[in-house]
Amino acid sequence: MAVKQTYNVERFFQALGDHTRLRLLNLMGDQEICVCYFVEILGGPQSKISRHLAYLRSAGIVSARRESKWMHYRIVMPPHIGATQILKQTLGWLKEEKTMQTDRARLTKACCSPSKYVLLEGAPPPIKLEAPSCEVC
Amino acid sequence: MAVKQTYNVERFFQALGDHTRLRLLNLMGDQEICVCYFVEILGGPQSKISRHLAYLRSAGIVSARRESKWMHYRIVMPPHIGATQILKQTLGWLKEEKTMQTDRARLTKACCSPSKYVLLEGAPPPIKLEAPSCEVC
DNA sequence: CTTTCATATACGTCAATGCGTATATATAAG
DNA sequence: CTTATATATACGCATTGACGTATATGAAAG
């Protein structure tokens, strides 16, 4: 039978212990976002973004969905009430950080006029989610 | 003038991303505790405990007080409302974890009969704190 | 099938971290 | 001063993690 194994708390916190990953989570918020937006807004090599997204996936904090060429990422609440509460609180906290506000503003701007960004030509826009999918709430 | 610099969020989460450090924080709770109790309850080499306590100190999550030969550690709430809330929530979460409950039970036991533990002969007992010292609440 | 585009992974390097062992430091006791 | 006790730090080693660069994969277009 399926034994309810203890959630990996350490891995969860480790995933939150990196600036780039926090920026990614902040951009996702309650939206499902295409990787190309992350690359555009965070800058730097695309592989860097992809590696951090993989880390978040391995920690069970985000999930990915393929849509033809594009990959969409969204936050998924961990299967643990404690982790879920902390993640939500962290996301709220990030909204007050200056860097994070700037990132979000740039995302909004990019979404309004994607044609101005070479990387975003024809890119699928973010999809507003009703509520962050949560397995415990 | 003293500029309010941004709190190091990443360092905060990194400090929480280790099992031994979470066990230490769980044992402290709202008490000020002598290092010898940590050594007794967590087991393993004393240097390991000391190193993790140093890490928590460097992250600003605990503070140390010397009382003759003994060092007492307590949790100090970070100078940031967001981090404080998350730390409190984490401490509450830990109380529900099995390993953490066992640790706390062992601490209680050790405090009731310190004479049974060679390491704790004459050790100063934990000191209940009125409330976790918090700089932002 | 070949090319193109979006994304993921492999590789090599370097810094950070965790651990056990040994040693240093600080205080108290004799 | 010497010794004993409590705690912290230094050292060497193994692992993890972050990075840039290069390459692989997967899907669509020609």
Give the key terms.
homodimer; about 140 residues; alpha+beta; Arc Repressor Mutant, subunit A; four-stranded antiparallel sheet; about 50% helix; globular; DNA-binding; DNA-binding transcription factor activity (chains A, B)
Please, could you describe this protein's structure?
- The structure is a homodimer of 137-residue chains.
- In chain A, strands 2-3-1-4 form a four-stranded antiparallel β-sheet.
- The first copy, chain A, contains six helices and four strands, in the order ααβααββααβ.
- In chain A, a hairpin with a 2-residue loop joins strand 2 (62-67) and strand 3 (70-75).
- In chain A, 50% of the residues lie in helices and 13% in strands.
- The first copy, chain A, has a domain at 18-111: Winged helix-like DNA-binding domain superfamily/Winged helix DNA-binding domain (Arc Repressor Mutant, subunit A), CATH 1.10.10.10.
- The first copy, chain A, is α+β, with helices and mostly antiparallel strands.
- Chain A is globular, with a radius of gyration of 15 Å.
- The first copy, chain A, has helices spanning 9-16, 19-28, 35-42, 46-58, 81-94, 98-112, and strands at residues 31-34, 62-67, 70-75, 127-128.
- The A-B interface holds A 6, 9-14, 16-19, 22, 82-83, 85-86, 89-90, 92-93, 96-98 and B 6, 9-14, 16-19, 22, 82-83, 85-86, 89-90, 92-93, 96-98.
- The first copy, chain A, binds a DNA duplex (30 and 30 nucleotides) through helix 3 and helix 4.
